[in-house]
Design brief:
The chain is of the alpha+beta class. It folds into 2 domains: 66 residues, no CATH class; 207 residues, Alpha-Beta Complex (Fumarylacetoacetate hydrolase, domain 2). The protein is 15% helix and 35% strand. It has 6 helices and 19 strands. Strands 1, 2, 3, 4, 5, 6, 7, 8, 11, 12, 14 and 17 form a 12-stranded mixed β-sheet that branches. It has a 5-stranded mixed β-sheet with strand order 9-19-18-15-16, with no helix packed on it. A two-stranded antiparallel sheet has the order 10-13. The protein is globular and about 55 Å long.
């Protein structure tokens, strides 16, 4: 299934993507499970599939406004420096363990939402990534069981304010400006992605390819990341983990290149759709 969260007629709803429509569950189902996070917590994806199979309740995508797939995840954990090409362009040393940082909920943005560059920074950079969402919680999850804990996958753009990212050796400020982490357009359930390493990621700026890589090139693969993170913190349904960006970021180009007002940035991953956002300016 492809799952989306959206606003329609003053309500925040979720449903199954089918062409130009969303298939909605019943009101009783929505009262029981008010958001996708509660569906995941209850292990109720099969029930959601059954609820929407008949296609009796539909809403046109064109009549909705997108919301981040998981609007309020308990945790957003990002992996940095997870492709050899990105490690090389940053001139950093290899690491024995995954490099991690956190994002806040209000740093997320939806597909189609205007992403605002802070007016006091010109170094507004793209980072196309694969994100996955935890479906079954756990602690001390082994690599062998990691995929059993994943609900599905989505595109992510870890947009970075580079000067603020480098004020100190901590990434946090440059990664958490409001609405700078586009996430979507939908969540593709794990059963539809038999081998995530076969997917291809591409980031485009105004149609020009900036990044192109195979998900098979991750330094720390998804099972390794799940095992490592779950050793120090319990993972819960709805938690989001972004797996890192490949080489080709604007900050490391010669000369550097950044996103500006009016630009359009796209992240496309095979089978996961196109995450598209226009760049504005936060006055």
């Amino acid at each position: 299934m492809k799952l989306a969260t959206f606003q329609h007629a003053g309500r925040t709803l979720y449903g199954v993507v089918q062409g130009a429509n969303y298939l909605l569950p019943s009101d009783d189902f929505l009262r029981k499970y008010p958001d996708l996070q509660s569906v995941l917590a209850a292990q109720a994806l099969p029930a959601l599939a059954a609820e929407t199979a008949a296609g009796q309740r539909t809403v046109a995508v064109a009549d909705t406004v997108a919301v981040p797939v998981i609007p309020q995840p308990g945790k957003i954990i990002c992996v940095g420096l997870n492709y050899k090409t990105h490690v090389a362009e940053t001139k950093r040393a290899d690491s024995e363990y995954p490099s991690l940082f956190l994002r806040f909920n209000d740093s997320l943005a939806a597909h189609g939402q205007e992403v605002l560059r802070p007016a006091f920074s010109e170094r507004f950079d793209w980072e196309g990534e694969l994100a996955f969402v935890i479906g079954k919680g756990g602690r001390h999850i082994s690599k062998a069981n990691a995929f059993d804990h994943i609900a599905g996958y989505a595109c992510f753009n870890d947009i970075s304010v580079r000067d603020w990212q480098r004020h100190t050796h901590q990434f946090t400020p440059g990664k958490n400006f409001p609405g700078t982490g586009p996430f979507g357009p939908y969540l593709v359930t794990r059963d539809e992605v038999p081998d995530v390493t076969q997917l291809t990621l591409e980031t485009r700026l105004n149609g020009e390819v900036m990044q192109h890589a195979s998900l098979g090139d991750l330094i720390f693969d998804i099972p390794t990341v799940v095992e490592y993170i779950s050793r120090f913190t319990p993972l819960s349904p709805g938690d989001v983990i972004a797996t890192g960006t490949p080489g080709g970021v604007g900050d490391r180009r010669e000369p550097p290149r950044y996103m500006k007002h009016g630009d359009t940035v796209e992240v496309e991953i095979t089978g996961l759709g196109i995450l598209r956002n226009r760049i504005g300016t936060d006055a």
